[in-house]
Recover the amino acids of this structure.
């Protein structure tokens, strides 16, 4: 099978060996193989390591890194740092890339003027009580961003469970802010912050609906638990940008508040109490995130011992 020699895949994982196995098997069965797959594992047991070791010698070239430090941003920085190809594609361990995912990335990145993209995310089929979609991106409209030096809100670009970036741009903006994202006190916002900083630095990004992954559904309780986290991350991002003198952060914040308030009003008109509750959780999380972001210390040297990688 042909290999996409210019594209590395980076996956962060923690305590989800079955989901990671499903993701890796989907990559191995794709129309195009990645040049390498770098897996950073923050699990406290060896089950995930066993999943990777079972697949060594198979069609995927695997790089396994066991990391003591916790947090999605820390893991993604470590994963990208170990990639060797000019384009890095990032997905989550609970996602399943479509068979043509890498072939689409290779085709789109043939445009030398494109610096990065995010793709469509659709929910997997329901399974048991996991019937609620989360972190979906369903639009089929292709959009380009960056011609006006970042005058776009980051959630229009896409989400962190399906994006790809030229490695030079990852290095240029310093990768993920490790004060943000799941596993940090900010709880979210790491992808929104990355996209925002890329746009403000002049990167040309695209929302590419042909680049498709499927995302695992969650229970109702899990979906509700994520709503304040999303809001908190967005609020923390906006506060950090404002502290840096980025006045466009006010536009982003107002746009976010308008988006959530508008959705809540629509739910009210339909008599959808569950929807209203979700939007209230998002708004409350945003307020808490603003306070948290204003109190966050300046970033220090990246910490976290990384154990030797295995191929």
């Amino acid at each position: 099978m042909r290999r996409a020699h210019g594209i590395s895949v980076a996956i962060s994982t923690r305590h989800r060996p079955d989901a990671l196995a499903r993701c890796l098997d989907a990559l191995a069965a794709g129309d195009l193989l990645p040049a390498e797959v770098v897996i950073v594992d923050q699990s406290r047991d060896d089950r995930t390591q066993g999943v990777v070791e079972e697949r060594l010698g198979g069609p995927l070239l695997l790089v396994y890194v066991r990391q003591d430090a916790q947090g999605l941003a820390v893991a993604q920085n470590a994963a990208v740092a170990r990639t060797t190809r000019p384009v890095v594609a990032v997905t989550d361990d609970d996602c399943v890339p479509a068979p043509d995912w890498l072939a689409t990335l290779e085709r789109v990145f043939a445009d030398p003027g494109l610096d990065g993209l995010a793709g469509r995310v659709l929910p997997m089929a329901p399974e048991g009580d996991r019937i609620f979609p989360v972190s979906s991106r369903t639009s089929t409209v292709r959009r380009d961003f960056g011609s006006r030096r970042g005058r776009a809100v980051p959630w229009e670009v896409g989400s962190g469970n399906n994006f790809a970036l030229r490695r030079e741009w990852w290095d240029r903006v310093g990768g993920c802010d490790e004060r943000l994202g799941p596993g940090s006190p900010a709880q979210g916002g790491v992808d929104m912050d990355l996209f925002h900083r890329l746009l403000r630095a002049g990167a040309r990004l695209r929302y590419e609906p042909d680049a498709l992954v499927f995302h695992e559904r969650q229970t109702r309780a899990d979906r509700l638990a994520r709503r304040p986290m999303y809001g908190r991350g967005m609020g923390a991002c906006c506060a950090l940008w404002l502290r840096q003198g980025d006045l466009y952060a006010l536009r982003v914040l107002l746009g976010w508040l308008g988006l959530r308030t508008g959705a809540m009003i629509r739910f009210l008109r339909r008599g959808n109490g569950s929807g209203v509750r979700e939007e209230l959780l998002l708004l409350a999380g945003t307020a808490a995130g603003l306070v948290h972001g204003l109190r966050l210390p300046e970033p220090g040297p990246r910490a976290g011992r990384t154990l030797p990688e295995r191929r």
Summary: Confidence is low (pLDDT under 50) at residues 302-311.
